[in-house]
Amino acid sequence: MNSNINMVNKMNIYFSGSIRGGRQDAKTYNQLIDELKKFGDVLTEHVGSSEISSEPTDREIHRQDMQWLKEANLLIGEVTTPSHGVGYEIGYAVAMGKPVFCLHQKKEEKALSAMLNGDPAIKCFEYAEIEEARAIIQNIFTNLQ
């Protein structure tokens, strides 16, 4: 096996997707997380769950998510559904100098935010079908040094 792939397998991946902004893409998140698990540990696997716990307080959620973000080697966000939290996490990851990759579905009624698409520190990818998104993820990890 390629030594770069071995190194990638040990990565901590922060997956970001809308929770309170809307859960219509939860199934897609779950499929993307399954793909990401081939390349490392997904610290935020719960984002793809069909049931999100309401037990932690907002303060606890913030504290835990910021800890996971610090532990992560990179952030991959699915940004089709706009979310304040996802934007916050992406901005924080960029400020920390972490690689940030955003995937979004081709939808005429939803344009990608100029703040994401216009930031040279964020690599944005558009996809139509889940297989295309999986291929994008594979390419991201293949090209990581």
Report the portion of residues in β strands.
Answer: 15-25%
Mean pLDDT: 88
The count of strands amounts to 5
Shape: globular
How many separate helices?
6
**What structural category arises from helix and sheet content?**
alpha/beta
* Assembly level: single chain
User: How do the SSEs run, as a string of H and E?
Assistant: HEHEHEHEHEH
End-to-end Cα distance, whole Å, is: 16 Å
Low-confidence stretches: 1-8
Question: How is the topology of this model organized?
Answer:
Elements: H1 3-9, E1 11-16, H2 26-36, E2 40-42, H3 58-71, E3 74-78, H4 84-95, E4 100-105, H5 114-117, E5 122-127, H6 130-143
Parallel strand pairs: 1-2, 1-3, 3-4, 4-5
Helix pairs in contact: 2-6
Task: Explain the overall architecture.
Helices cover 43% and strands 18% of the residues. The protein has 145 residues and is an alpha/beta fold. The chain has a five-stranded parallel sheet with strand order 2-1-3-4-5, with helices on both faces. Helix 2 (26-36) packs parallel to helix 6 (130-143). The longest helix has 14 residues, at 58-71. It is globular, with a radius of gyration of 14 Å. The model is unreliable at 1-8 (pLDDT under 50).
